[in-house]
Write a structure and sequence with these properties.
By secondary structure, the chain is of the alpha+beta class. The chain has a single domain (3-17, 48-157), classed as 3-Layer(aba) Sandwich (Glutaredoxin). It has helices at residues 40-51, 74-85, 104-113, 147-154; strands spanning 7-9, 15-17, 26-31, 57-62, 125-128, 134-138. The longest helix is centred in the first third of the chain and has 12 residues, at 40-51. It starts with 6 loop residues before the first strand and ends in a 10-residue tail after the last helix.
């Protein structure tokens, strides 16, 4: 199994299979609109603008699992992300990301990387290699433009798009 075996539904309800992104690194992030870390949307958008043209795909996965901080409907979440942060990266429907009812991608990631890498709060990040294997997990407090995360992303970009 790898990430390409999983699919989400987009925030608009359309299929969003991860296999659509084969050959590209993917950053999957559980998000929330009413969290102290919500400003990370701006950093995720910066990642999209900086690394998207070079191959990175950022995917936001709204979740209400932590502190009830994503209570809205998909339409409300989409409007919030568009108006407050100008989010241009794909967003999924609201999903569970922990526990027995977690989305299958999150169950697989937890099994693959171990319990220490399971989301403990909003804005947990999973970096998927271009071949669909999991590269790493980054905790909620790791800012999207943090050096450790951008270095991991840059290491996974196609050679022609890596910074010189």
């Amino acid at each position: 199994m790898n990430a390409y075996d999983y699919s989400f539904a987009s925030i608009d309800g359309d299929p969003l299979p991860l296999s659509k992104f084969k050959g590209k690194p993917v950053l999957v992030v559980n998000t929330a609109s009413k969290c102290g870390l919500t400003p990370q949307y701006a950093g995720l958008e910066s990642l999209e603008k900086t690394y998207g043209p070079k191959g990175l795909v950022v995917i936001g996965v709204p979740s209400n699992d932590f502190g009830g901080q994503e209570p809205g409907t998909e339409a409300e979440i989409k409007t919030f992300c568009d108006t407050k942060f100008g989010v241009s990266f794909p967003m999924t429907r609201k999903e569970k990301v922990v526990g027995s009812s977690a989305h299958p991608f999150y169950k697989w990631a937890a099994e693959t990387l171990g319990a220490g890498n399971v989301p403990k709060w909003n804005f947990h990040k999973y970096l998927v290699n271009a071949d669909g294997t999991l590269a790493a997990a980054f905790g909620s407090r790791t800012e999207p433009m943090a050096g450790e995360l951008t270095a991991a992303i840059e290491a996974r970009l196609p050679p022609a798009s890596k910074p010189r």
